[in-house]
């Protein structure tokens, strides 16, 4: 079997896994699988080195990625007016399987996700200039760039069902302080929970793009529901917050800095945590503060315990 056929087979297996979770009512797992597959398809669409697929086929893959994101959004917001149903998504299964020979009109009137490079943590280090140089070069020119779809409409998940004697944690991301806050385009946060080895123990979530910028602060005012009971989090785990923004000159979304909160810091009320230089160090071995200035990530914790 050729490499391209193996890739298609892998995509199809992921698609089937997601729709199975969806039909079984395992919504968190379905959302996770849809988002992973959407990223894989977008990566293929945006690849300039691959000749496995024609431009038309890549356009179709991009539209499938859009549908996956739409279904994911529908599962996260039951009140959504733009509901994309599972039955509709399942119509795309044969298209994925037969992408090399598919030549019919796409069944839904959607557009591929806007072209943006989707990079693994640290990968952008090889592609971009230092933040200070980039900020200086782009100062005052942000408004010149045309409007684009946000980097992320958000992939926040609902609160888990309560269990007797167990505690759930809601983190309100209030604001982040940055010296060049006003120059950050489409800023959002990626939240993950990692064990001591840097391995995910929860689904990764993205906030929507920040609500406003004011002086040296970017305001989010958004609640993030941690997708595991506090008592079930592994010893030594930490909750990570990666601040990301769009680089128009390089056409990719970059991690600017990160912060993290350890398990002994989980307690009700406000908390202010330090910002560290990228790349994100999920193992917390070589940490470097982003700045000596009094600029932090501001959070508020709420604990929900079902007695």
Summarize the structure.
The protein is of the alpha+beta class. It is built from 6 helices and 10 strands, in the order ααααααββββββββββ.
The span between the termini is: 56 Å
Lateral arrangement of strands in the main beta sheet = 4-5-1-10-8
Low-confidence stretches: 116-152
Care to count the β-strands? 10
> Per DSSP, what share of the residues sits in E-state strands of 2 or more residues?
15-25%
Radius of gyration: 20 Å
Could you state the oligomeric state of the chains shown?
single chain
What's the overall geometry?
A: globular
Main sheet makeup: 5 strands, antiparallel
Output the number of helix runs: 6
Instruction: Determine the mean pLDDT.
Output: 82
Classification by helices and strands: alpha+beta
Helicity range? 25-40%
SSE series: HHHHHHEEEEEEEEEE
Structure description:
The protein is an alpha+beta fold. It has helices at residues 3-24, 27-46, 55-76, 86-90, 93-97, 131-138, and strands at 167-177, 185-194, 205-206, 212-214, 217-225, 238-247, 252-262, 269-273, 276-277, 297-305. α1 runs antiparallel to α2 (27-46) and α2 packs antiparallel against α3 (55-76).
Give a topology summary.
Elements: H1 3-24, H2 27-46, H3 55-76, H4 86-90, H5 93-97, H6 131-138, E1 167-177, E2 185-194, E3 205-206, E4 212-214, E5 217-225, E6 238-247, E7 252-262, E8 269-273, E9 276-277, E10 297-305
Antiparallel strand pairs: 1-5, 1-10, 2-3, 2-6, 4-5, 6-7, 7-9, 8-10
Question: Descriptors for this entry?
Answer:
6 helices; 307 residues; 27% helix; 23% strand; alpha+beta; five-stranded antiparallel β-sheet
């Amino acid at each position: 079997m050729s490499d391209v056929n193996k890739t298609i087979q892998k995509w199809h297996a992921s698609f089937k896994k997601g729709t199975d979770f969806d039909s079984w009512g395992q919504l968190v797992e379905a959302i996770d699988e849809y988002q992973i597959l959407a990223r894989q398809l977008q990566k293929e669409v945006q690849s300039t080195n691959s000749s496995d697929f024609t431009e038309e086929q890549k356009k179709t893959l991009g539209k499938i990625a859009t549908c996956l994101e739409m279904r994911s959004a529908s599962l996260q917001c039951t009140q959504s007016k733009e509901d994309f149903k599972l039955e509709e998504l399942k119509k795309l299964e044969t298209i994925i399987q037969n992408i090399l020979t598919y030549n019919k009109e796409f069944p839904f009137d959607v557009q591929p996700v806007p072209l943006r490079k989707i990079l693994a943590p640290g990968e952008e280090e090889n592609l971009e200039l230092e933040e200070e140089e980039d900020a200086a070069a782009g100062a005052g020119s942000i408004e010149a760039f045309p409007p684009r779809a946000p980097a992320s409409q958000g992939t926040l998940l609902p609160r888990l069902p309560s269990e007797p004697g167990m505690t759930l944690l809601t983190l309100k991301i209030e604001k982040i302080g940055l010296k060049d806050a006003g120059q950050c385009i489409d800023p959002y946060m990626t939240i993950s929970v990692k064990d001591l080895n840097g391995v995910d123990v929860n689904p990764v979530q993205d906030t929507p793009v920040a609500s406003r910028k004011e002086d040296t602060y970017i305001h989010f005012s958004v609640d993030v529901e941690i997708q595991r009971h506090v008592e079930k989090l592994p010893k030594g785990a930490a909750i990570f917050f990666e601040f990301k923004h769009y680089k128009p000159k390089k056409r990719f979304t970059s991690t600017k800095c990160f912060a993290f909160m350890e398990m002994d810091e989980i307690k009700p009320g406000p908390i202010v945590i330090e910002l560290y230089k990228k790349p994100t160090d999920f193992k917390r071995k070589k940490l470097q503060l982003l700045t000596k200035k009094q600029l932090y990530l501001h959070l508020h914790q709420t604990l929900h315990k079902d007695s």
